């Protein structure tokens, strides 16, 4: 059975569109939709990790250095998760 698909449309700056095209070419993804689906999948995983208290980072083995990635959304998700654990409503 074929899933019903919904169309999402939004405006992008020329710079953002160029970045989409660069990422699509780099990854070999066939469509912009495939790129957005993969990005959403990754974002969902990241939010799940942040919600349970984990931090997102990259590791430079050569320099033995971590670079942590933090956004205001990550902070909000973590705070809301902590409130929920304490029994407060969102």
Q: Please give the count of helices.
A: 3
Given the C-alpha coordinates, what overall shape results? extended
Low-confidence stretches: none
State the secondary-structure class: mainly alpha
Q: Mean pLDDT, rounded to whole units?
A: 91
Level of helix content? 40-55%
Distance between the termini: 36 Å
Query: Strand tally, please?
Result: 2
- Profile the largest sheet: 2 strands, antiparallel
Strand content: 5-15%
Order of helices and strands: HHEEH
Strand order of the largest sheet: 1-2
Q: What is the total domain count?
A: 1
CA-atom Rg in angstroms: 17 Å
Task: Describe the overall structure.
This protein is mainly α. It has one domain. The chain is built from 3 helices and 2 strands; from the N terminus they run H-H-E-E-H. A two-stranded antiparallel sheet has the order 1-2. A hairpin with a 4-residue loop joins strand 1 and strand 2. The longest helix is centred in the middle third of the chain and has 20 residues. It is extended and about 40 Å long. 1% of the residues are buried. The mean pLDDT is 91.
Summarize the structure.
This protein is mainly alpha-helical and 90 residues long. The chain contains three helices and two strands, in the order ααββα.
Overview features:
single chain, 90 residues, mainly alpha, two-stranded antiparallel sheet, 53% helix, 11% strand
């Amino acid at each position: 059975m074929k899933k019903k698909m919904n169309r999402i449309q939004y405006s992008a700056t020329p710079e953002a569109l160029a970045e989409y095209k660069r990422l699509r070419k780099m990854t070999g993804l066939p469509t912009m939709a495939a790129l957005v689906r993969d990005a959403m999948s990754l974002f969902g995983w990241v939010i799940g990790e942040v919600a349970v208290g984990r931090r997102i980072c990259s590791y430079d083995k050569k320099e033995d250095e971590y670079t942590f990635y933090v956004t205001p959304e990550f902070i909000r998700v973590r705070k809301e998760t902590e409130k929920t654990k304490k029994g407060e409503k969102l």
